[in-house]
Design goal:
By secondary structure, this protein is α+β, with helices and mostly antiparallel strands. The protein has three helices and eight strands. It has one domain: Mago nashi protein.
Length: 154
């Protein structure tokens, strides 16, 4: 039995994890020259995972892969096990040069949670709580040759 921790949600739902139909994970790279900058958006549903990799808006890769419902369930469980939730926003107070993570999840078109973290100066800011690094790794593990998709062919 999985116990669902309390969530501050985009909308009220008693058991949000079980009703998820879509999870979107965003990674925003730090401010570095375009040759090295890689941000990406990963969208996961019960039957597919799509990654869009960009460098300051210039799309480098856009790939979609089939997954099965068990893989989608693993990511849903990862959200619970890593205690992903929205908390009170912590301001960065001028820290610059870090990276960011954002997670959103939906029941069809209804947003159940949207939260982000800015990692700067060995501190985390924003309203995302929990271990997003573990969740992000679980998500990336579903993408074949993930690191190859970050490379630019130039």
């Amino acid at each position: 039995m999985i116990i669902i921790p309390p969530y501050e949600l985009c909308s009220k739902s008693k058991n949000p994890i079980h009703s998820l139909t879509k999870i979107i994970y965003y990674y925003y790279d730090s401010s570095v020259p375009p040759k090295y900058h890689r941000s990406y958006t990963i969208t996961i549903t019960s039957d597919s995972i799509r990654i869009i990799v960009d460098s300051y808006g210039d799309v480098i890769n856009d790939k979609e892969f089939e997954i099965d419902s068990n893989q989608f369930e693993l990511i849903k469980k990862s959200l619970v096990l890593n205690r992903i939730k929205k908390g009170k926003k912590i301001e960065s107070k001028g820290c610059t040069g870090g990276t960011s993570d954002k997670i959103e999840y939906y029941d069809n078109d209804k947003c159940l949670l949207s939260a982000s973290a800015y990692h700067c100066g060995n501190k985390d800011y924003g309203d995302l709580r929990g271990d997003i690094k573990n969740v992000a790794q679980d998500i990336r593990n579903l993408i074949p040759n993930f690191s190859e998709l970050l490379k630019r062919d130039d």
